Amino acid sequence: MTTLFSKETMMKLKALIASAKTYVVLLILAIGLLLYTVSVGYKQVNRLHETGDMVAHTLEVQRTIVELSAKFQELESLQLKVFLKEDSSNLSGIVVSEMEQTIERLKLLTSDNQAQQERVKVWEQLCDKISSEVNTVESTDSIAVIDSIEAKDSVEINLASKRYQRIGRISKIVEESQILKERMLSEENYLMVARKEEYTSQSFLTPMSSLLVAITALGIFLIGFISIYKQKGEIQEVNNQVFNQNKKLQETEEFLKGVYKSSNNVISHFEPIMNGEKNIVDFQFKYTSDAIEKVTGEEQDDIIGGSLLQLYPMVIENGLFEIMKVCFLSGENQEHESVYMFENQTKYIHNTVVKSANGITNTAWDTTKVKEAEKVLQKLNEDLSLQNTIFKEAENVAGVGSFIWYLDDGSATVSDNFYRILGVKPNSFDVTFDAYKEYVHADDISIFESLGTNTEDSGKSTVFTYRVFTKNKGIRYLDLKGRNLEIDNRPVSVGIVQDITSRIEKDRELIESYEKLKQSNEELESFNRVASHDLQEPLRKIQMFISRIEDDEEGKTPNAGSAYFNKIKAATFRMRELIQNLLSYSRIDKINSKFEQIELNDTIEKVEDELSQLIKDTKTEISYSGLPLLYGIPFKIEQLFTNLISNSIKYRNKDIAPQVHIVSEKLRSDTIAENFVKNAEYYYKISLRDNGIGFDPEFASNIFEVFQRLHSKNEYSGTGIGLSICKKIVEKHNGYIHAISKKGEGATFIIYLPVQ
Hints:
about 750 residues; five-stranded antiparallel beta sheet; EC 2.7.13.3; HATPase_dom; membrane; kinase activity
C-alpha cells in the first residue's frame, strides 16, 4: 500500500508538474512575487536615489554658500588693494556681478527651505550694501587724498579717514556675511546629519531588497528567466546609481571634514544629559572641530565625550548654558557673546546655537581680534579728532587757513579759518575758482589766476601775495603758499593762506621810518660838514685873535680883563673839544676799516704811552696780563681803552693814587647772564676796574648816553661824550658794554667781545 501510494503520489506530482496549468499558475505566482519584490526593491532604490540627491543637494548648497562667502572676502581684498594702491586695476564690478549670480543660484537651491530663503534675503541685502559701498568708494577715489602727501594737512587726513571708514564698513559687511555663512552652514550641517542617517538606513535596506530580489529570482529562475533577464540591465543601472551615490556621499563627507578643518570657527555638536525628571542638567560633547585647540588650548580628543559644565563651568555664569537649553527645547536659533578666560588670556567668543537632530550644534567664533581692532580704531578716531581740533585751534592762533584746490575744474576744499579770513562764516558758500575770484581785488586778478596756470614741478612751493575784499575788515593782504601735486592724475594745489595785512602795514611804517631816518642822516651829514668847517673856523679865529691880544697887551691888561680872557680861552677850548668829540661819535658807524687780529696787551701798552704824562702826574698804576687776541679795528679798540682808562684817572679819589686792573676770561654765550643779542658761541669778558669815586648804581645805564654828566663841569672837565663813544665802538664790534659801581667804591666796566 505504501509503495502504491508513493507511486501514485509521484505520478500525480509529475503530472501536476508537467501540466500546463501548473506552469501557468506558477508563472503567475512567480510574476506576482517578482513584481512585488522588484517593486519593493525599486522603491528602496528610488528612496536611496532621492536620499543621495538630497545629500548632493545639501552639498551643492554648502558649496554655493562657501563660494558666496569667498566672493565677499575677495571683494574686501580687492577694495583693500585699491585703498593701499597696490593694484591699479579694480575688478570689484565683476565680483559683484558674480556675487549676484551666486545669490540667485542659492535662492533656487534653497527654494524648499523657508528658513534658508530668509537668510538668502539677508545675503541680498548684504550684497546691496557692499555694492553701494564699492560704488561709493569708486566714485570718491578720484578725489581722495593720499595719506603720504609730504605737506601734512587736516583736510587730507579727513578725506583719508572717510576712505578708511568705508573700508571698515566693507569689512563689517564681510564679517556679517561670515556670520551668515556659518548660520547657513550650521543649518545645512543639521540637514546633512539627518539625510546621512536616512541615507545610511536606505543604504542598509537597499542591499537587503536586492538580496531578496536575487533569491526570488533564483527560486523562480526556470519560470521567469526571460523576465529576470530583462530586469538585469535595470538592476545593473540601479547598482551603478547606488555606487555613484555612495561615492558622492563619501566626497561630501570628505568635503565637510575639509570645511571643518579649514574654518577658524569652533563647530561642536552636543546632546543633552537629562535627570530622572527629564530636566536638562548638562550637555555632552559628541563632536567638536580641531579649531577648539587654538581657542582653549585643550586637545580635541580630550573634549569629545566630556561634560560641558565640567570642562567649562563658566558657561553657567555668562548665560550660554541657559541659551543652549532654550535652543534645544524651543528649536529656535540663539546668539550669545561673552568674555572667556583661556590659558590666562581674555577672549571674546560669539556663539551661534542651532537645534540639530537629537541635540544642538554650536558655532563659536573668536572675536578677540575684532574687538581689539575696534578699540584701536576707536582710539585712532579719538586721536584724529583731537588732532583736528588742535589743528583748527592752531589755525586760529596762527591766523592761517588751509586749502586743497583742484586745478582741472576749479573746485576746492578749505578749512573753517579760510572762511573767517574772508570775513564770512565757515561753509557759507562753496569755494570754487570763480566764486573765490569775486573776493580778489581787481588789480590782483592776474596774480590769483596764475594759481591755475602755474606749471612748476610737483612738490615745489609757489608763493602769491594779493588783496581781497572782506565784508567786515575791508581790503586785506593775503599770502598764499602752495605746492602743485597730482592726486589720481588730477593737478592739485595744496597749501595755506595767511592774512599779512598787519605785516604789510608795519612794512609801510618801517619804510616811512626809514625815509625819516634817511632824512635825519642827511641832516646829520650836513651838520657834520658845518661842524667840521663852518663851526671850527670861527673858533680858530677867536683863539688866534685872543692869542694876538695877549701878545700885544702882555702886562698891560688889568687883572679883571686877563681873567675874562682866560675864561674865553677855556670856553673856546671846550667848544672845540666838544665839536671834535661829536664828529668822532658820528663817524664811528661810517668807519669801514677792515677787522684785524689785535694783541690786546700791545694795545694797552700803546694807551700807556699815549697817556704817559697823565699817568705820571697822577701816579696811576695799571695792571694787566694774559689779555686775549681780539678781532677788530685796531685804532678803535685803542680809542676804547684810552677813553676808559682816561675816565678812570679823571674820576679818581683825591686821597689815593689811581689803580686800574684789567682782566679777561672766555665764556660760552649761554652762560652769560647779561641780556643782549648773542651771535657768537663764545665771548671774551674784559673787566676794567678802578678805585675811583664811583657812582650810584641808578646811573649805570645813563653814563653811556650822549652829554650825560654826573658832575658839573667845574668839578670835572669833559664833554659827556667819551663813554658814549666807547659804547658805539663796542657795538660796532658786535659786543656789549655796561658798568657796575657804588659811590665811593670805584667802578668796573665790563666788555663782551665775540671770539672769532
